[in-house]
Amino acid sequence: MNVISTCLTGTATILTCRKIAQSFSENIYELSSIRHNWSPEYANDLKHRIDSIMHQYFTEESLSEHLETHGQFYELMIAALKDITVFRAELKVDFSYDKQFLKDTFEKLGYVDYYSDAKNGDHFSLYKMMATFKRNMDNDLQQMVLSRGIDQVLLTRLMTYKEKLAELKNCFDISHGQDQLDAQLKHEINAIYSEIKNICRIVTAYYEFDPVQRDRFCFYKVMIGLKKSMLVS
Fold first, then answer.
1. 180: DSSP letter
2. What b/e readout covers 13-22, taking b as 16+ CB neighbours within 10 angstroms?
3. Using 50, 70 and 90 to split pLDDT, how confident is the model at 89?
4. pLDDT tens digits for 171-180?
5. CA 122 to CA 124: how far, in whole Å?
6. Burial class (CB in 10 A: 0-12, 13-18, 19+), 128
7. Which one of 50, 83, 155, 170 is separated from 189 by 20 to 30 angstroms, measured CA to CA?
8. DSSP-derived 3-state class of residue 59
């Protein structure tokens, strides 16, 4: 019996992977020149594996319902990414004279481990970063950064994102029950996601000076642009 996923994050991930795989297939003859295993056969197989997951674990109704609600959810993700990026820039300005403090603080708050993946569309990394940020932003550090000019309102918002983004964790934590990702589905989505993310890293570098093509392989930008027209008929 198929396990129908009700997880918004799982839906967004597989639909985004499918969209990028389609773009990859459309450009495979050009891209095959930079990786010896990138071929039309590989591109078609990748699309087939993604479609198999969608047909096995999702219904058109569940996909449609999730796309109806994903806009508000990803507006929250955009807000969180904007705030952690602004906070990072302010910290660099305020403590430009203390490189060791910046290094230690960025590591303490999760920037070293999670920021790069989070800004490239890894929604679970975004959750883990906000959880790390809240856990390690102790009173002494708060007072230090506030004293240099960072606004209290910004810091307060940053401390609330962990709870607001809790669904990102729940969807990938099978211990939360049957309403979250089935173990096999979790494994299959993670495998496809890792493969697509690696493709994106190489292709965005290849299209560095072609912003239109580059954006077609930016996981985050593709994800927030999901449309109901992407559903499988």
1. S
2. bbbbbbbbbb
3. very high
4. 544 334 444 4
5. 6
6. buried
7. 83
8. coil
Burial 155-169, CB ≥16 within 10 A → b, else e: bebbeebbebbebbb
Give dist(CA 103, CA 144) in Å, integer: 15
Residue 18 token pair: 């499918």
Instruction: Copy the structure tokens of residue 24.
Output: 């990859």
**For residues 193 and 49, is the Cβ–Cβ distance under 8 A?**
no
- Residue 130 and residue 113: Cα distance in Å, rounded? 12
Q: Give the pLDDT confidence of 106-157 residue by residue, as tens digits.
A: 999 999 999 988 887 677 788 899 999 999 999 999 999 999 999 999 999 9
How does DSSP classify residue 111?
I
**What DSSP character marks residue 207?**
T
pLDDT score of 219: 85
| Share in percent of the chain as helix, strand, coil (round to 5) | 75, 0, 25
